[in-house]
């Protein structure tokens, strides 16, 4: 079973270290949510693990091998990443976009094989995008566009799928559409999914594992119910919150009511 983890990872922008001595192991076959305040380093960690950023020191290990020492195409066959707000050239169709996911498996100018075409067809079907395959990407709704990009990532046929804030700028309906798709992919296709999430309640509803990050350091990690605590929320986000159980699923939900540094009496009076 292929694993991905970091060892003593330091990540720097110019001369400023933003992540230090990170040791993080991603549970295989699970959905992991990286959470933290703006600027905490969660997107930076995701990019480093996906080989988009080269660390200053330490290693990202893919099945025990340094990810930066592996050939690019080999990494692309194991790991796909969907960055924030990806853009496609004007007029590019959904089918063409998804076809780009087969690039790691192609050589020369031979075009796509029957296997490539079958995988593209499958990726469109599993994401519910078959009916939109001839539609230009720039003419899709927000939720449809995000599903098209996820289909492209799926066409890479990787074990790991990394997503940086996949629901940003989507309305509530489209957010649920994307998150339910990711959960289905995890359950049906056994994909290991790592996603940066802003909404803590989305994290607890859709992830099995949570990593809470502050200033490039892991404050807490583990099953979502163990990480979503009043103390962790106070330390990581600087808030006071009640933790209640979702009446439908039993997962913990966060109900913030004050900043952590507010006097208790003032917070209670609001």
Structural write-up:
The model has no long low-confidence stretch (mean pLDDT 92). The protein has a single domain, classed as P-loop containing nucleotide triphosphate hydrolases (Rossmann fold), CATH 3.40.50. The chain is built from ten helices and twelve strands. A six-stranded mixed sheet has the order 6-7-8-3-9-10, sandwiched between helices. A four-stranded antiparallel sheet has the order 2-1-4-5, covered by helices on one side. It has 270 residues and is of the alpha/beta class. Helix 4 (114-126) runs antiparallel to helix 5 (142-155) and helix 5 runs parallel beside helix 6 (172-189). Keywords: ATP-binding, Cell membrane, Ion transport, Iron, Iron transport, Membrane, Nucleotide-binding, Transport. Residues 4-240 form the ABC transporter domain. One of its GO terms (molecular function) is ATP binding. It is found in: Cell membrane. It is a peripheral membrane protein.
Low-confidence parts, pLDDT < 50 over ≥5 residues? none
Coarse structural class? alpha/beta
Would you tell me which CATH topology applies? Rossmann fold
Cα shape: globular
Note the gap between the termini: 51 Å
Kindly report the name of the CATH homologous superfamily: P-loop containing nucleotide triphosphate hydrolases
Secondary structure tally: strands: 12
**What is the percent of helical residues?**
25-40%
How many DSSP helices?
10
Assess the beta-strand content as a share of residues: 25-35%
Taking the sheet with the most strands, its summary is: 6 strands, mixed
Strand order of the largest sheet: 6-7-8-3-9-10
Would you state the CATH class?
A: Alpha Beta
Second CATH tier, the architecture: 3-Layer(aba) Sandwich
């Amino acid at each position: 079973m292929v694993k991905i983890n970091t060892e003593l990872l330091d990540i720097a922008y110019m001369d400023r270290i933003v992540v230090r001595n990170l040791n993080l192991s991603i549970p295989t076959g699970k959905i992991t949510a990286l959470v933290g305040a703006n600027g905490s380093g969660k997107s930076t960690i995701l990019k480093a693990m996906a080989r988009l950023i080269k660390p200053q020191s330490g290693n990202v290990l893919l099945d025990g091998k340094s990810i930066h020492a592996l050939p690019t195409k080999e990494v692309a066959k194991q790991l796909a990443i969907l960055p924030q707000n990806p853009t496609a050239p004007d007029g590019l169709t959904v089918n063409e976009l998804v076809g780009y996911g087969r690039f790691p498996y192609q050589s020369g100018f031979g075009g796509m094989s029957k296997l490539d075409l079958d995988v593209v067809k499958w990726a469109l079907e599993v994401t519910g995008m078959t009916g939109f395959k001839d539609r230009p990407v720039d003419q899709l709704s927000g939720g449809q566009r995000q599903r098209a990009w996820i289909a492209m990532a799926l066409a890479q046929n990787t074990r790991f799928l990394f997503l940086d804030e996949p629901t940003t700028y989507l309305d509530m309906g489209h957010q649920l559409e994307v998150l339910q798709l990711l959960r289905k992919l995890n359950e049906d296709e056994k994909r290991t999914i790592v996603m940066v999430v802003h909404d803590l309640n989305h994290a607890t509803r859709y992830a099995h594992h949570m990593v809470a990050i502050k200033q490039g350091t892991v404050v807490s990690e583990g099953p979502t119910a163990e990480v979503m605590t009043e103390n962790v929320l106070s330390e990581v986000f600087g808030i006071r919150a009640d933790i209640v159980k979702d009446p439908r699923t039993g997962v913990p939900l966060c109900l913030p009511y004050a900043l952590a540094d507010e006097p208790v009496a003032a917070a209670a009076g609001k």
